[in-house]
From TrEMBL:
Coiled-coil stretches: none
Domain of life where this protein originates: Bacteria
InterPro entries documented for this protein: ArsR-like_HTH (IPR011991), HTH_MarR-typ (IPR000835), MarR/SlyA-like (IPR039422), Tscrpt_reg_MarR-type_CS (IPR023187), WH-like_DNA-bd_sf (IPR036388), WH_DNA-bd_sf (IPR036390)
Protein name: MarR family transcriptional regulator
């Protein structure tokens, strides 16, 4: 099997995963990528954009656009820090907080569906191979 074939299959699976994630999350008014911000805020509400960008591994400009869209959708609020007015903090709205269980259930079902045709051993092997592929891509 050639590296190209592996890459093509990996890309195909990755694209299918993104499209299906977007489709399922949109039922909750959440767009792909926003679930990572929500996860951070469900764990610790009131983070600064810098903290959020670092935790989810995106550039600050990317996060700013993401937060603007989330604020327009009523998922988060951005407000000045009470102790340091130069800082902005991001807070979940009631609606954003209420999405925790439905989004977790949706992602959990998506994960189960993704591997439903694999045996337990195949799933473990596949996870190990993906970890090796990631290490190779990171040059480690």
């Amino acid at each position: 099997m050639t590296a190209k074939l592996v890459w093509d299959r990996f890309y195909e699976a990755s694209r299918a995963s993104k499209l299906e994630t977007e489709r399922r999350l949109s039922a909750h008014g959440v767009h792909i990528g926003q679930q990572f911000v929500l996860e951070c805020l469900w764990d610790e509400d009131g983070l600064t954009p810098t903290e959020l960008a670092r935790r989810i591994g995106v550039e600050p400009a990317t996060l700013t656009r993401l937060l603007r869209r989330m604020e327009d959708a009523g998922l988060v609020l951005r407000r000045d820090d009470e102790q340091d007015k130069r800082r902005i903090r991001t807070w979940l709205t009631e609606h954003g907080a209420a999405l925790r269980d439905p989004v977790h259930a949706t992602i959990g079902q998506l994960q189960r569906d993704a591997v439903r045709l694999l045996t337990e051993d195949e799933t473990a092997t596949f996870a190990a191979l993906l970890a090796k592929m990631t290490t190779g891509l990171r040059g480690q």
